[in-house]
Structure formats: structure tokens, C-alpha cells
Write a structure and sequence with these properties.
mainly alpha
Length: 110
């Protein structure tokens, strides 16, 4: 091969190697910065997500407590009504039984 062509190819190869190294260095720098930015964005999103979840859990717990308190009051009121109705039913049964069967002193001594 002609020495001039060989020299031209060597210069071209050296130039291409230099460009490749330059692009490689630039890409590595860009990818490093991008990775750093993405990590920061993920940390920021993580903090926002944690804050949102914490607020949601707190709100949900408060809503659940309010619901349970309301339910407890309603249940208590319902059972008071049921208990009063049972008292009335028992009273209405007990009074006639007490009137119809007098307890004699003879039956008590046995």
C-alpha cells in the first residue's frame, strides 16, 4: 500500500478514535448526570408518596374512629330500646302470674 494512503488511513483512524473517546466521555458524563437527577427525582417522589400515604392513613383512621363512635351510639340506643321492650314484655307476663298464683305459707315450709 502507498505510504501516503497508509498515512491518511492512520490519521483518519486516529481522528475517529479521538472522536469516539470524546463522544464516549460526553455520554458517560451525560448518563452520570441523568442518573444523579433521576435518583434525586425518585427520592423527591418517594418523600411525596410517603407524605401522601401518611396523610391518607391518618385521615382514614379518623374517619374509621368517627364511624365506630357513631355506630356505637346507634347500637347502644338500639339495645336500650330492645331492653325496654323486653322489660315491658316480662312485666306483662310476670304481673298476671303473680296475681294468679298466691304463694301459701304451707307450700313455703316444704
Amino acid at each position: 500500500m502507498d505510504p501516503e494512503i497508509r498515512d491518511a488511513f492512520d490519521r483518519l483512524a486516529a481522528d475517529l478514535r479521538g472522536e469516539i473517546r470524546s463522544v464516549d466521555t460526553g455520554l458517560r458524563t451525560f448518563i452520570g448526570e441523568l442518573a444523579r437527577d433521576l435518583r434525586a427525582e425518585i427520592r423527591s417522589g418517594d418523600a411525596e408518596t410517603r407524605a401522601y400515604v401518611d396523610a391518607s392513613v391518618t385521615a382514614s383512621a379518623a374517619e374509621t374512629r368517627a364511624y365506630i363512635d357513631t355506630s356505637a351510639v346507634e347500637t347502644r340506643r338500639h339495645f336500650d330500646v330492645v331492653a325496654e321492650a323486653l322489660r315491658g314484655d316480662i312485666r306483662s307476663l310476670a304481673e298476671p302470674m303473680a296475681i294468679s298464683k298466691p304463694v301459701s305459707s304451707a307450700s313455703r315450709s316444704r
